[in-house]
Specification:
The complex is a heterodimer of chains A (378) and B (111). Chain A is 72% helix and 0% strand. With 378 residues, chain A is mostly helical. Chain A has four domains: 161 residues, no CATH class; 65 residues, Tetratricopeptide repeat domain (Serine Threonine Protein Phosphatase 5, Tetratricopeptide repeat, Alpha Horseshoe), CATH 1.25.40.10; 52 residues, no CATH class; 78 residues, no CATH class. Chain A is elongated and about 80 Å long. Chain B has three helices and five strands. The N and C termini of chain B lie far apart (42 Å). With 111 residues, chain B is an alpha+beta fold. The chains are: A mainly alpha (378), B alpha+beta (111). At the A-B interface, helix 2, helix 9, helix 11, helix 13 and helix 15 of A face helix 1, strand 1, strand 2, helix 2 and strand 3 of B.
Chain lengths: 378, 111
């Protein structure tokens, strides 16, 4: 795997890549046309499609799509700049960038200097060139063509792409291949380049948490949260962090922050329910479940709450009848942590009652009792 | 902090990325070693778009081909998640798909 990224770029690879551009562009057209037909990713999909058209020489058609995009979303600088550049007829072969920012990651700068003369012969530069090669890089990545994707990102940088964009793309490429050390290096350098990059900090926090640098992951998340308190995913990740760190109050606080922005956030609702159950906060649980009326999780929470508060077993049995999949999941052991909060004598009676009602087989009942009551620590 | 839910969520997210699925369409969480994944699975790659284009003449055939691709992806996802150290199981609420014990992934709607 790692040779896709670590291997130094050879001249013949760049030549082969340049020969592939036309075919990859045709494949990209198929992809984007189909996406447009199905209105998938609309309207943002108009940007790459328009750039591809423009770079392929269909400037008039490209202009129409860019215009359409700006009619829908005119507050994104990238789009307004692109529209203006297309309107002015930006040259497809623009000014050769004179001073590239230095990129340490994988010696990108050294590799670029070494291949500069060849790159100049093979790839065009200018207003849209960096976007064009970057789009082809992402297309190759989606198709698991890792080396080609890497080379396109490199070409995109040569064509005038921003340093932080290059590092973010390479970081994501490494991440998707499980090259976590490299991903951390790329994203770390990217974050130093642009501490306000929209996605870099969050992406890096995922890498850091996976490799076990939890404090670093938390710091990154707190930084991103300070900049974007309205991003529920970041608040939720902090809740997850504090839950793993056994800080129930802080976990609950961040769960509530995530839910304040997105009340139907599945993961946050799941975790909040767990936290309130752990806290044994009966009133808060009742309020919480009540607030979820109509939410698909409400029925599941109601059942576990009823079990924990030793509600009449017939009532629980009736509730379980409405959720046959949940019953299977309980038997499979997927709600262990919830079940283990229930009084054992009550639980034993409940399983026996489920057997009597033929909601589970005798064997399933025996297994459940064995799992949750008799040998719970095995 | 030992291997934790916080870490396992990251590991699952990476598996999802490596399979070409869109993380923005999925809610992923791990609580006490059980993974909970809810949302919609969607791959946006040339293979999927080619199926949609090449079988546009027959909705039935297109859906059959797409189901095959997505089933394979879901099987790989489930296999890789369950193989992770620290994971005891996985609960899925995936739009149009259900994982049934002993039967694997079943498409519940044409979609």
């Amino acid at each position: 795997m790692d040779e896709n990224i670590r291997k130094p770029i050879r001249e013949e690879e760049l030549t082969v890549l340049a020969q592939r551009v036309e075919e990859d562009t045709r494949e990209a057209f198929v992809f984007f046309k189909q996406m447009l037909k199905e209105k998938k990713g609309y309207p943002d999909i108009l940007f790459p499609y328009s750039v591809l058209l423009y770079c392929a020489g269909a400037t008039e058609e490209a202009g129409k799509y860019m215009e359409e995009l700006n009619r829908i979303n005119d507050h994104y600088e990238l789009y307004t700049r692109a529209r203006a550049a297309m309107a002015q007829g930006a040259a497809a072969d623009g000014v050769f960038p004179k001073n590239y920012p230095s990129v340490e990651f994988l010696d990108v700068t050294t590799q670029l200097e070494k291949n500069k003369a060849l790159l100049k012969k093979l790839f065009f530069t200018g207003e849209f060139a960096s976007h064009y090669y970057s789009i082809l890089g992402h297309m190759s990545q989606a198709d698991s063509r890792w080396r080609r994707s890497f080379l396109y990102f490199f070409a995109s940088f040569y064509a005038g792409g921003k340093k932080d964009d290059l590092l973010f793309s390479l970081g994501q490429l490494c991440y998707s291949q499980g090259e976590l050390t490299l991903a951390a290096q790329a994203l770390g350098e990217g974050l130093k380049t642009n501490p306000h990059h929209d996605k870099m900090g969050l992406e890096l926090s995922y890498v850091e948490s996976e490799v076990g640098r939890f404090d670093r992951a938390r710091e990154l998340l707190l930084d991103v949260f300070a900049q974007h308190p309205d991003w529920p995913d970041v608040a939720y990740r902090l809740a997850e962090y504090y839950y793993s760190d056994h800080n129930i109050e802080k976990a609950l606080d961040y769960c509530n922050r995530a839910l304040a922005v997105n009340p139907s956030y599945y993961s946050a609702n799941m975790l909040k329910f767990r936290l309130l159950m752990v806290k044994d906060a009966t009133d808060a649980l009742e309020d919480f479940i009540g607030s979820l009326e109509g939410h698909p999780m409400a029925g599941i929470f109601q059942i576990f709450f009823a079990m924990k508060t030793k509600t009449d077993k017939h009532r629980v049995t009736e509730l379980l009848k409405d959720l046959p999949l949940l019953k299977e999941e309980i038997i499979e052991g997927l709600w262990d942590d919830m079940i283990r909060m229930v009084d054992k004598a009550y639980l034993e009676d409940l399983f026996e009652s489920l057997v009597r009602e033929k909601l589970i087989s005798e064997e399933e009942g025996r297994e459940a009792i064995k799992r949750y009551i008799r040998h719970e620590h095995q | 902090m030992s291997i934790s839910d916080f870490q396992l969520t990251s590991m699952i997210r990476r598996v999802i990325v490596s399979l070409g699925l869109q993380t923005s369409l999925l809610d992923i969480t791990v609580i006490n070693g059980v993974a909970y994944i809810k949302g919609k699975i969607e791959r946006q790659d040339v293979t999927i778009m080619k199926i949609r284009r090449d079988y546009a003449f027959s909705q039935e055939m297109m859906q059959e081909k797409l189901s095959h691709e997505y089933r394979y992806t879901l099987e790989a996802l489930d296999r890789q998640i369950r193989a992770m150290p620290g994971i005891h199981g996985a609960v899925y609420k995936i739009k149009d798909w259900e994982r049934r014990i002993g039967k694997g992934w079943i498409r519940t709607h044409g979609g």
